[in-house]
Fold:
Amino acid sequence: MLHSFLESPDASVPWGPLTVDKAGNFYNTSLWGGSQEYAGSVFKLSPTSGGTWTESVIYTLNQQTGVGISNEIDGVVFDSAGNLYGVGGGGVFELTPSSSGWTETTIFPFTSTKGPYNPYASVVLERNSTLWGTTAWGGGGTCSTNGCGTLYRVQKISGVWTGNAVFTFHNEANGWFPTSTPIVDSSGNVYGTTLNGGAFGFGVVYEVTP
Structure:
């Protein structure tokens, strides 16, 4: 047992895969916890020389003000510079390390149900300047009143992050409610799964090509 989670201000209800840095520290996200009890957090587990592990909350997701990103549910990823990326209810965020802690920047806000909305999966990093992810709802379509879900891309171009939905799941036949983290091949094709839809209604494996 490396660590048992408590209640706020500790991280609480961790969700998603662990990410490890070059020093052997683990990072993950929690559905609840941090300085705001139900806001969610990003936390770090560090090994010590005595064989134990020390846990610290490195960022509490803001539930009411500012970025409005709360209840992050599925992990974070590193780029080569040591920045962390994740997604929550309000959009995709970047955490940048400094000597005084971590600074959060929202690089792609989710602003309405007409665009990406309600993520269930973490982002995947393609090189150091492109992130891919899915949202279970949003984008319109005929599957539900909340839309059928989206595949979105966030890119850093000339130092500025921009994002958009590159594909909208629009009906039950082509799959809907994508809840998995996509993967990207060397040609830029994106693959993933949906929970629902397809010929028999039990989900599909999809490919989106540029």
In short: Residues 64-68 have pLDDT under 50 and may be disordered. The domain at 1-109 is CATH 2.40.10.500 (Thrombin, subunit H). Residues 141 and 170 are 4 Å apart (CA to CA).
